[in-house]
Batch of 2 targets.
Target 1
Amino acid sequence: MTATARGPANVPGPRPRARRGEGSKLRELILDAAERLLVRYGDADAVSIRGIAEAVGVTPPSIYLHFTDKEALIRAVSERSFAEFDDAVEGAGAGVSDPLEALRARAHAYVRFGLENPEQYRVLFMSKTGTHGPEVDFAAMPGSDAFQHVVDAVGRAIDSGALRGDVDPFLTATGLWACVHGVTSLMISLPEFPWPDVDALVDHICGSQLSGLVAKEKTR
Amino acid sequence: MTATARGPANVPGPRPRARRGEGSKLRELILDAAERLLVRYGDADAVSIRGIAEAVGVTPPSIYLHFTDKEALIRAVSERSFAEFDDAVEGAGAGVSDPLEALRARAHAYVRFGLENPEQYRVLFMSKTGTHGPEVDFAAMPGSDAFQHVVDAVGRAIDSGALRGDVDPFLTATGLWACVHGVTSLMISLPEFPWPDVDALVDHICGSQLSGLVAKEKTR
DNA sequence: GCGCTAAGTTAACGGTGTTCACCCAGGGAG
DNA sequence: CTCCCTGGGTGAACACCGTTAACTTAGCGC
């Protein structure tokens, strides 16, 4: 509650003071610095606007030239890594031919990415949504594409005959998402719990989660 | 980031100014006021020490006579409702004779409680653990009893023959917890997602989660 | 009545997000 | 060449925040 990121020479980087002339690529510099600080202190409100400004070599109000809010800045930082997140998950599933194994590979990649980038994950999936607009439609959210990829992957498993024809792809994808998110977010928030091996846990969840939906009694 | 809980006459309640004589039941008053504010503004850091103090009718430093920290206060508030939480989950499972149905009833009660008390849930299961001590053992945590209850419930399902004898109760309980937590926390954090019906989702997850572990091929 | 201590207060410190008023370099128009 | 105007900032301040130190007061035991 009291630890914040400041202090002189916080960042070894230079303070080139006053970028001139060309357009607003200061925005990118701000995002870079904010991301560095965010991963350094793994806490979104331990990194301050003033700290970011100092790291960039600029005064705090300049940041508001490019971001309406601290929340918008942090969100922009985290959404930046969303594409990377989607790539990691999709890449893990793409190389696997068995559609059930592909789903499982996706799940592992999901959890791994979340645990390796806990603060970004926290901002994306565990923070209080700003609820800026009362009606933000999900299709405009950064994760809607990634989610659709999961629905598609479930659909492929159905089409291939691996999953029963009567399973609802949307419901199943939502359930899988909830399960892997549950593992990820709990392990982030409660590291003191005596967690079993992550991979074993994810395998257990995916296995039992999907085995109830398989066409034959493979009960793998 | 800017909305905090203050303003005059925030609470219609009186400000009885200066409790005297008897012991520290101011502590209870603080907890009451903090809980009220916490549920009013559903955000732990939108309720301020100063706001709580004003609601109680006392000055901010008095709070530190009873709580070392704001975090300790918030945690105390939320842990207060942990017994209630455990009771709700256990009560839901107690009346059901079929051990599999009992597990499912627990899951529904878990999610329902979380969605009805989102900010307490957030503090308990979604906040960055203070990590005060490097070695906090889980048995001392407030939730360890509640978790043990789930392990026991899984154990009963095994003993009754409803679940296969070779399933690991701890791993299965952890998996179930992760799944219901995943639903709960995602629905809290991303209300703009087009969620399916909660009960249907929980049923789907529990059903497929457990159907892979049943003894016979009930595939319910 | 005297002191001691529990219970609270006043005042302040350092930090936060954010805003307002100002400045100033550089480029286009006349 | 000069004027002005606008994008890209700066300095100072506001209204908070959590927290601490020093001081005061109320009531009890002796």
Target 2
Amino acid sequence: MAASELDPLLASLSAARLQRRAVMSTSAERAAHALREQVTEGTLRSGTRLPEVRLAEALGVSRNTLREALSQLVAERILVRVEHRGVLVATPDTAAVRDVYAARRIIEPAAVLHGPAVDAAHLDALDAAVREGTAASGRGDWTGVGSANQHFHRAVVALAGSERLVAQMELLLAEMRLFFHQMGDPEPFHAPYLDENAVIAGHLRAGRREAAATRLAAYLGTAEEQLVAGFGEIAERARTTPA
Amino acid sequence: MAASELDPLLASLSAARLQRRAVMSTSAERAAHALREQVTEGTLRSGTRLPEVRLAEALGVSRNTLREALSQLVAERILVRVEHRGVLVATPDTAAVRDVYAARRIIEPAAVLHGPAVDAAHLDALDAAVREGTAASGRGDWTGVGSANQHFHRAVVALAGSERLVAQMELLLAEMRLFFHQMGDPEPFHAPYLDENAVIAGHLRAGRREAAATRLAAYLGTAEEQLVAGFGEIAERARTTPA
DNA sequence: CCCTACGGATTGTTCAACAATCCCACAATC
DNA sequence: GATTGTGGGATTGTTGAACAATCCGTAGGG
């Protein structure tokens, strides 16, 4: 009947409505988004307390609404809540680095090896992230390189074909931003991996999954050790120069 | 109506609230815990709406506190929030099953193969879960078998040595409970896997990681197909008997 | 130097209210 | 008869103010 003519239109309309909803969202989500950005950009540094009243005023929302936003970020491990003391920006330690990398070493190589969704779209996403990284590197924009790296690893996990796995990976990657912000000079933690990403993307495009997986696994191992060493230096400095 | 269906539940919730007060810290967490339990136990079925005022009264907390709890459960994918319509118990579909299993097929075999934490404590946890399952099966307690199964797979992922990965796995397993509650007869979805769990635990205790991993991967494949078939039947029934 | 009491600040939680939005039933229209 | 307005009621999103519980720094007292 005429309904079949109408169906695609109806579908596009309802899709547009959902999208508008997702963009506008509720004020709690907007507040959470703003805070998350401040933390991942490094404007809010690890350990800073977030007093509810002042923060609520600054964000233009009520305290109750703010608390919903804070709870969400606590669930994402970006913030930490201490009872009757408030929420603070999480301060990762060596154990956090080891834990995150233990998870990544399970997920990422397995996605590369066994992911069922190695198709054109996902390969293009990988290449796009690689290009984004080299472009940012050319500008000396190391924060940009960090974002590009994040996009690369999200694209890697997307090969598994699971929205949920990607969402969980994004939590790990957001926590990684906290790691980097604790390092002094970001360049040595990002620069060496630009070429690695390109090589891995090339392997995958050529169908050499095992090569890509082993390269990625090695990559994750050295990156972890480098970060742990960085945290060791921080601890050393804190020990020798007490407040 | 849905109201009369909800009432006895509300009563039981308010009864349990005194019990938990001493154990858990904040009342938002207590409320979230109580609700999560009701959903995973199957008392609250998929699709039921959770009106804020009545639920807040039943749990003995204010509406604002309840909203914090609901937000947390929404983040866990146990509940779904529709703007201006409220939160409902999530109703998974075939896509959700496929997505969850895509994630599990990445994480679990990799944890078995490459997990660095295959020590006595973790092997004991596996065996304990196996015993818990056979015991529950002996009582004909299929909900108990489901819990034991959940514990088994949590123990499998714990081999990876990452708290965060275990936490993420627990979200997937909680969502699995929703799948099972939509199936009519739980037995065929739990019984076949008791022996499999025992075999896998045995392989791991003997150091045969590859054998354990391949067995686990096959296991996950058949379980997924079985669940998808179950959901197909539900859809079929809904199509042939319209409301 | 250690302990303790005290006061201010912050959180945990509640309550009451209002606008925005959705749902449903009913009337009006073609 | 099916489709389209059109209230009215219920529910959510959000706010503001309030109070008790708890923490933290500080000032005395031993």
